C-alpha cells in the first residue's frame, strides 16, 4: 500500500549524539534526506527528533501471573509506543507474540524466546524450568525461536540456602553459551547477586540483566570482554519492598537485597567509569508497568551517567548494539519528536510531542 503522503520532519534531527540535521522526509515509511520530487501531500512535524527509543529489557505477552492473551499484549505494546519506545528487546516471554511483526503500528520486537530457569528457581509460569543436563538443548531451542537472543535466569533465591545463589554449573553454562553462539544468538542472564557473574562472563556471556552484584573483582572482567549490562534501575527500586515481604522467612536474602539496593547507583557508576556498555531497560511486564523508558534514563543520570550517554543508551548506542538502524537514509522512519532538546535535559523524554512509526504519525 502506498498513499504517497510524505511526512516532513523539520527542526533538529538528531542523527547522532553530535550530528544534527535540519530536516528529513519519510516516503513510503522510509527516511530520506532528499526532498521528494513532484507535488505530494505533506504533513509537517517540528521539533527535536530522536530515533525511536529502545527498551532493552521489556516483556510483551507477560504479566505477574504468566502468559497473557493477544489483546493484553497489544495493550502493553501500545503503552510502550506511547512512551516513545519503538524498539523492544523482549527479555523473555512465555507468549508467542510473532503476530506483532505484521503490525506496522506496533513497536518492533527483538525476542529472546522464553526464559530458561532452574527448576522452582523463578517466578511461576514464566520460564522453562529445567535441570543443568538439559540446558544446552533448551538454549538451542530458544535460540531458534528467538530473534538473536536467549535469556537465562542466572541466579535466584535458593530456599534451602536462604539467599540468592547461582543457578547453573560453569561447565553446562559454558557449553550452552557456545551452542547459542554457534546458532548465531547472543545470551543474556538475569543476575542480582555477586556469585554468578564471574562464571557467566568467563563462559562468554554477552549481557547481564540487573547486574546489581557487580563489584571490584568483576567490573574489570566485564569491561575487558565488552559484556553489556541493562541495570533496570526502575525495577531495582522495588528491592526494599521485596525485602520487606521476605524478611520473616529469608532474613539473609532480605538483607542481601537491601545491600544491593543501597549501592545500586555506585555500582552503575563504577561500571560506567570502567567502560562497560550500559543500556536502558525497564523490565516492563511481570510486576513493572510498560512505558517507563524516560524514568529509567532519568535513573541512569541520577546514578552519575552523563546525560548524553544515558540518552544514547536508549537511542543511538542501543540501536547499534542491537544491530538496528538509527536515522540513516533508507531506514524505517521510526522516530520520536520533542519540543525541547533531550540532550540538554533528559526529562524532555517524558513528554514526546509526536511519535512516528514506519513513517506514520501514531502519537
Ligand atoms: Zn525481566
Please outline the helices and strands.
Elements: E1 5-14, E2 20-27, E3 30-32, E4 41-51, E5 53-58, E6 62-63, E7 66-67, H1 70-82, E8 85-90, E9 108-111, E10 116-118, E11 128-130, H2 135-145, E12 149-153, E13 155-158, E14 163-166, H3 170-182, E15 186-191, H4 197-202, E16 207-210, H5 219-225, E17 228-230, H6 233-236, H7 239-246, H8 251-262, H9 264-274, H10 293-302, H11 307-312, H12 316-321, E18 335-338, E19 354-357, E20 360-361
Parallel strand pairs: 1-4, 5-8, 8-9, 10-11, 12-15, 15-16, 16-17
Antiparallel strand pairs: 1-2, 2-3, 4-18, 6-7, 13-14, 18-19, 19-20
Helix pairs in contact: 2-3, 7-8
Provide a descriptive summary of the structure in words.
The chain has 363 residues and is α/β, with parallel strands linked by helices. The protein has two domains: 5-50 and 325-361, Roll (Urease, subunit C, domain 1); 53-321, TIM Barrel (Alpha-Beta Barrel). The protein is 29% helix and 26% strand. The chain contains twelve helices and 20 strands. The chain has helices spanning 70-82, 135-145, 170-182, 197-202, 219-225, 233-236, 239-246, 251-262, 264-274, 293-302, 307-312, 316-321, and strands at residues 5-14, 20-27, 30-32, 41-51, 53-58, 62-63, 66-67, 85-90, 108-111, 116-118, 128-130, 149-153, 155-158, 163-166, 186-191, 207-210, 228-230, 335-338, 354-357, 360-361. The strands form six sheets. Strands 3-2-1-4-18-19-20 form a seven-stranded mixed sheet, with no helix packed on it. A four-stranded parallel sheet has the order 12-15-16-17. Strand 6 and strand 7 form a beta hairpin. The longest helix has 13 residues, at 70-82. Residues 57, 59, 91, 283, 286 line the site of zinc ion.
Amino acid at each position: 500500500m502506498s498513499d504517497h503522503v510524505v511526512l516532513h520532519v523539520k527542526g533538529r534531527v538528531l542523527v547522532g549524539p553530535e550530528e544534527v540535521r535540519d530536516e528529513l522526509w519519510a516516503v513510503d515509511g522510509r527516511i530520506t534526506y532528499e526532498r521528494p520530487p513532484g507535488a505530494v501531500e505533506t504533513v509537517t512535524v517540528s521539533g527535536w527528533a530522536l530515533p525511536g527509543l529502545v527498551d532493552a529489557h521489556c516483556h510483551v505477552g507477560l504479566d505477574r501471573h504468566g502468559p497473557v492473551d493477544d489483546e493484553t499484549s497489544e495493550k502493553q505494546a501500545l503503552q510502550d509506543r506511547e512512551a516513545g519506545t519503538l524498539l523492544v528487546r523482549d527479555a523473555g516471554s512465555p507468549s508467542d507474540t510473532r503476530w506483532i511483526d505484521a503490525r506496522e503500528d506496533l513497536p518492533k520486537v527483538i525476542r529472546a524466546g522464553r526464559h530458561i530457569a532452574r527448576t522452582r528457581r523463578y517466578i511461576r509460569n514464566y520460564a522453562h524450568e529445567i535441570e543443568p543436563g538439559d540446558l544446552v538443548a533448551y538454549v538451542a531451542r530458544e535460540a531458534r525461536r528467538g530473534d538473536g537472543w536467549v535469556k537465562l535466569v542466572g541466579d535466584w533465591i535458593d530456599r534451602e540456602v536462604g539467599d540468592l545463589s547461582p543457578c547453573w554449573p560453569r561447565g553446562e553454562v559454558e557449553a550452552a553459551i557456545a551452542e547459542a553462539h554457534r546458532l548465531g544468538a547472543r545470551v543474556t542472564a538475569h543476575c542480582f547477586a555477586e556469585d554468578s557473574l564471574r562464571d557467566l562472563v568467563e563462559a562468554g556471556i554477552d549481557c547481564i540483566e540487573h547486574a546489581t552484584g557487580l563489584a571490584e573483582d568483576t567490573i574489570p572482567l566485564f569491561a575487558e570482554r565488552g559484556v553489556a549490562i541493562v541495570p533496570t534501575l526502575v525495577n531495582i527500586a522495588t528491592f526494599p519492598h521485596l525485602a520487606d515481604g521476605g524478611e520473616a522467612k529469608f532474613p539473609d536474602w532480605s538483607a542481601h537485597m537491601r545491600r544491593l539496593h543501597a549501592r545500586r547507583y555506585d555500582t552503575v557508576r563504577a561500571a560506567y567509569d570502567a567502560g562497560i556498555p550500559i543500556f536502558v531497560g525497564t523490565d516492563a511486564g511481570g510486576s513493572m508497568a510498560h512505558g517507563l523508558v524516560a524514568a529509567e534514563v532519568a535513573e541512569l543520570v541520577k546514578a552519575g551517567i552523563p546525560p548524553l550517554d544515558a540518552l544514547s543508551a536508549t537511542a543511538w548506542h542501543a540501536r547499534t548494539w542491537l544491530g538496528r538502524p538509527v536515522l540513516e537514509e533508507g531506514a524505517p522512519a521510526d522516530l520520536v519528536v520533542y519540543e525541547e532538546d533531550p540532550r540538554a535535559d533528559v526529562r524532555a523524554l517524558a513528554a514526546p510531542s509526536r511519535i512516528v512509526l514506519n513513517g506514520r504519525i501514531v502519537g
